[in-house]
């Protein structure tokens, strides 16, 4: 008797302690997610009372190019590609330098981290000012054509400007992750490599780098998800222009729903975006963790 | 050159390159501060030189125009509500899911952490509609509550992984001494979660404080409920030719974060690293 009463009490506790979290997550994530799935099969302008069920027409429209979503997805892929590669290479290089012992090394780490604590919207605005007014002044002072390029006005250049600002904002984050990874590489292993006659370069590429596997997986994975989510910076810098050259998938979903009031089409894009992100992140994660080296 | 001289030379060159890189890196932030201290004419004519006579006139104007202190209060309120809820609901759920392992808690745990895979943009359209129905939009408290739902998956995951490292003997002995499950959580478990709580708080404060899209959807219609970033966004949009005010608005928006960072750099960096490695 006593035993079963305690069992029942435990069950009740299990329920009471977890139910608030379950309700909240359902309300904010699962229910809207299921709703998105349903709306993606409808046509709805947000004003009419009921969405009209139209089957897979929204998806057909996207794949036959009746919306600019595929182009936006392509931009997102290119942006993410350069974002991941440049962020990781630059962050690793800076982390190697910043783990050397010298005075003020903490101060330098702080400097590279500061943009990361600022809101991305603000970061976008600062750079907008620099690309326009700042660079013009540099051009007047130096006469170098480099400063006078149309950084935000030319479709080709705008892509690189947006990517540059994205990297600038978050580089500090990847630097601190790589620093933590480098500090976790045991000193005696490095020492042993030197004793065996390995050069500095060999030691770095053959010993340190493979042992950084877990950090690298984390950084590549985080930069991948952050790259795919790019939104605030673009909204502040270019609003997707010029001529949709910096139009990201997230911006496409946002505009389709909230500017053009095509909630159904927007939801269909949102579902495709979800599937795309899921596929890319899972494939990368599998591929990366298989290549990690254990000591 | 001897080997030692070579090594010193290498270090000097490395430090010089690093310093140049750091100066270039922080230059945009420096420029923003610089131009916020200048009148209009100077910002346009000489954007990159030092102000002739630094003035805080812009600050007075902007603080008044966007009701800065009110916005700062909104940010503090929304972030505080969000953090308290996320930490509390996630840690109790993780506590039960780890200590009472059975089919039910296993299912709940999976249910709680799976939404980490759902990008916010996938649900934002329908979220707005759902929040309209339950009246959590257009309110600062409502926005804070919404962050609970978005923050719980990751926080539960982090708490759960840490909970595994706390020896079960500790709460078992509390239990034998007659403490209830709740009492054990409050007096034994939660104090032991301190370091991981710092991680969760750091990650979530940085996220909620600077978040843009969710506040844009939920609290932007009324100037009284806006957050700092939203106000700066609108303000800079309106002032797109008056850069001196725009710069000042931006400085005022990021200033609290920079001050906090300067004082808590160690904890923030540690928290971010721990969060990324565990998440």
CATH architecture of chain A: Orthogonal Bundle
> How far from one another are the termini of chain A?
53 Å
User: Stretches of chain A where pLDDT falls below 50 for ≥5 residues?
Assistant: none
Structural classification of chain A: mainly alpha
Strand order of the largest sheet of chain A: 1-2
What layout of secondary structure does this protein have?
The complex is a heterodimer of chains A (295) and B (279).
Chain A: H1 2-39, E1 42-43, E2 52-53, H2 57-63, H3 69-98, H4 105-117, H5 120-142, H6 155-184, H7 187-195, H8 200-211, H9 213-228, H10 232-237, H11 249-259, H12 263-290
Antiparallel strand pairs in A: 1-2
Chain B: H1 3-35, H2 40-45, H3 57-65, H4 68-99, H5 103-113, H6 120-133, H7 140-163, H8 168-176, H9 181-192, H10 194-210, H11 213-218, H12 228-238, H13 243-278
Helix pairs in contact in B: 3-13, 4-5, 4-7, 4-10, 7-10, 8-9, 10-13, 12-13
Question: Could you name the key traits of this structure?
Answer:
heterodimer; A: 295 residues; mainly alpha; MetI-like fold; two-stranded antiparallel ribbon; 12 helices; B: 279 residues; 2 domains; 13 helices; globular
How would you portray this structure in words?
The complex is a heterodimer of chains A (295) and B (279). Chain A has one domain: Orthogonal Bundle (MetI-like fold). In chain A, 76% of the residues lie in helices and 1% in strands. Chain A contains twelve helices and two strands, in the order αββααααααααααα. Chain A has a two-stranded antiparallel ribbon. In chain A, a hairpin with an 8-residue loop joins β1 and β2. In chain A, α9 packs antiparallel against α12. By secondary structure, chain B is mainly α. Chain B folds into two domains: 58 residues, no CATH class; 213 residues, Orthogonal Bundle (MetI-like fold). Helices cover 79% and strands 0% of the residues of chain B. Chain B is built from 13 helices and no strands. In chain B, α12 packs antiparallel against α13. At the A-B interface, α1, α3, α4, α5 and α6 of A face α1, α4, α5, α6 and α7 of B.
